[in-house]
Amino acid sequence: NGDIIDASKLSTKFINYEDYKLSLKDELLMFKDFVDELKELNPESKIVFVGDNHLNERLERYIRERIDVDCIREEISIEKMFEKFKINIDEIVPYNKVYFPFTQRQIGCIHGFISSKYFTEKYTQKYTHSLIVNHTHTTQYYRADNGLECFGLGSLCDNLKYLRNQPVRWNKSFGILSYDNRIRKYFMNVYEI
Fold it and tell me: Per residue in 145-172, pLDDT tens?
C-alpha cells in the first residue's frame, strides 16, 4: 500500500545524503524481484500497486523541475517504468485514488496524505467508506460514530539510512484484509511486529 519504492534519488528533501541513496534502477530491480517472488508463491494472486508520495510525487516533481522538454516528460511514467523492467503488476492505482479489493465498496486502500496525530479520525471525516492507509508508517485505529473505520498501518522497512537515526514515530505492522461474500462483510486483522 505504498512507499515500497522509496525513490530516494529523486528526493529533494534529502539531497545532502547522496551516499545513502539507491539508484531508482536498483530500487526497481529489487521491487521486480519482490513481485516475482510473490507471484511464485501464489501465481493466482492479483498484485496491485497503490500509488504513494515517495515514487509518485517524487517522480512528478523531478520531471516538472528537471526535464524541460515536453515530449520527453510525456514519455516518463510509472506504467512505462514497470513495463521496461518487466515488473508483473496486475493493476496500478494512481496516488490518492481509493482501491476497493474484492469488488466491494465498504473498505478501500489508499496510501494517504494526512499526517496529523489523529490521522485515522480525519479520514473517517473525509471519506464515505472505511479505509486502510499507510502514509504515516504508524499503526492507529479509529471507529467513527457512523461505523466507518480507518486502519493506519506501520511500515515493514528498516529505518531509512538517510534519516541518520533521527527519531520517527514509525512502527512495524501489517494487515490482512479478508471479505466474506456470503455475509458481505470485511474483516481486518492488524499485526504489530
Answer: 999 999 999 887 765 665 666 666 778 8
Q: Report whether 107 contacts 149 (CB < 8 A).
A: yes
Helix (H) or strand (E) holding 189, with range, is: strand 185-192
Long-range contacts of 13-20 (CB under 8 A, 24+ apart): 14/162, 17/161, 17/162, 17/164, 20/160, 20/161, 20/162
Q: Which residues pair with 92 in a beta bridge?
A: 49
pLDDT, tens digit (0-9, with 9 covering 90-100), for 125-146 = 999 999 999 888 889 999 999 9
Say if strands 149-152 and 91-93 run parallel, antiparallel, or are unpaired: unpaired
Euclidean distance between CA atoms 58 and 15, whole angstroms: 12
> Does residue 16 register a pLDDT over 70?
no
Kindly state the cell numbers that stand for 174: 501489517
Residue pLDDT, tens place only, 71-118: 676 778 889 999 999 999 999 999 889 999 988 999 999 999 998 899
How big is the chain, counted in residues?
Answer: 193
Whether the pLDDT of residue 1 is over 80: the answer is: no
> How far lies 177's CA from each of 34, 37, 45, 57, 187, in Å?
20, 21, 14, 27, 6
What secondary structure letter does DSSP report for 103?
A: G
